[in-house]
Amino acid sequence: MSAYLSSLAGGMLIGLSAAILLVLNGRIAGISGIVGRLAQGANISVNLAFVLGLVAGPVLFLALFGSWPQVTITVGWPLIILAGLLVGFGTRMGSGCTSGHGVLGLARLSPRSFVAVLSFLTAGVLAVTLLRGMGL
Amino acid sequence: MTSRPAQIAAALLAGVLFGFGLALSGMLDPARVQGFLDIFGNWDPSLAFVLGGAVVVAFAGVTLSKRMRRPVLDTQFHLPSNNRIDARLIAGSAIFGLGWGLAGFCPGPAVASLSLGLWQTMLFVAAMLAGMMVHDRAYRTQRAPAHRPA
Questions:
Q1: How far is CA A7 from CA B3, B32, B77, B116, in A?
Q2: What local confidence, expressed as pLDDT, does residue B1 receive?
């Protein structure tokens, strides 16, 4: 399967997951929100079930295709720690990430999420451009 | 019907679909995510199809949900009510975006790829949780200052 097709199919499954969580449980499939609430001990059983399923997803991929999905990490530990801190802090401050604002927010035609997506995409492009400028 | 076990089963199913979808889509690969953000360099636009496909299917779910008085397994929808576009939203999203670009991980793929057992994703998720706690601590003291004598 071409990269474009598998990206489209994977994206549609992510959308299906978001639709299921919304229609059945009435909840937004925002990962930073779900992980954050789980860390705070809110609605533990339901949030934990979602996170365990999320972690099991790549295992299902392994079972079906016989290999793990590709994960290529090029940056070292100092940048990983910095990036993790920024992602955790920023998603709390901005109340969402690529799933909550990106998928659900855009699907709900939320102006607030449009602005959030524009902001994190711009910053993401800036970060990668800076990295490339430094030869990383 | 508002049974807790049914809600748990629905969340588990949604989680597996989400994690499998991420794995299939290529979003678990930080090198590809960075390639997608590298629009001034060697740009790889394929991941735009992930967001596109996800938004279209999620939109169908949103449309369906608007015709329902309540979700199938709960008494009410739990949707964000805040629609303010303010500095917190823009700055927070920008801070998130910087971190996303630096390592190529956003929260979903980082948590999903924990199953591969790589130390880098474990370290990233630990730092992400720490970043959330730092924010919540700073924000709490900012919002609820200690009583000061007048």
A1: 35, 11, 30, 20
A2: 62
Q: How many CA atoms lie within 13 A of A13 on its CB side?
A: 22
Provide the residue ranges of all domains of chain B, joining segments of one domain with +.
4-143
Give the separation between CA A116 and CA A43, rounded to whole angstroms.
Answer: 26
Q: Do B21 and A12 touch (CB under 8 A)?
A: yes
Distance to chain A for B149, nearest Cα, Å: 30
B21-B24-B26-B29 Cα dihedral, nearest 10 degrees: 90
pLDDT, one tens digit per residue, over B107-118 is 999 999 999 999
Nearest CA in chain B to A115: B90
Report pLDDT digits (tens) over A115-132: 999 999 999 999 999 999
For the entire predicted model, the pTM comes to: 0.94
The conformational region for residue B145 under phi > 0 = left, psi -120 to 50 = alpha, else beta, is beta
Say whether B96 sits in a helix, a strand or coil: helix
